[in-house]
TrEMBL record:
Gene: ribH
Protein name (record): 6,7-dimethyl-8-ribityllumazine synthase
Function: Catalyzes the formation of 6,7-dimethyl-8-ribityllumazine by condensation of 5-amino-6-(D-ribitylamino)uracil with 3,4-dihydroxy-2-butanone 4-phosphate. This is the penultimate step in the biosynthesis of riboflavin.
The enzyme's E.C. designation: 2.5.1.78
Coiled coil start-end: none
Residues annotated for 5-amino-6-(D-ribitylamino)uracil binding in this entry: 22, 56-58, 80-82, 113
Amino acid sequence: MRVFQGNLTGSDERYAIVVSRFNELIGSKLLEGAKDALSRHGVNLRGVDVYWVPGAWELPLVVEEIALRGTYDAIIALGAVIRGDTPHFEYVSAEMSKGLAGVGLKQRVPVTLGVLTTENLEQALLRSGSKAGNKGSEAAVAAIEMVSLLRQIRSDREVEKQC
């Protein structure tokens, strides 16, 4: 039996972080958590670029455009969609998350989701560096692990082709 799993040590990988400016207080906290996690896991922050977009709705387009460049090993999407009094929350959340998942599948690059979808500002604050941790940090760690895992899978596939 062979087991594949990514490790949590980075080095010279390139990461893009795309952050929604809407709810910037939360986005900034998620960004700091992501940068801290990348650094703590050995990623050189000179290989990390940050892109700010107006809101969560714009994340998938910019993430896809970045993925098409082929210069990043993974893309980390960050932001917060906080429920309001209208159904806008459901539309933005659903389409944003489907769009980001679609980019990862289509472009074959890890796209991690560090976008909070919360009922209120208090929940968002708790998940962006308070009692509930920092989901930006978690998305960064997931990106490191996915880069490592995909490298193993792709390397194994190349070895199998040669046999």
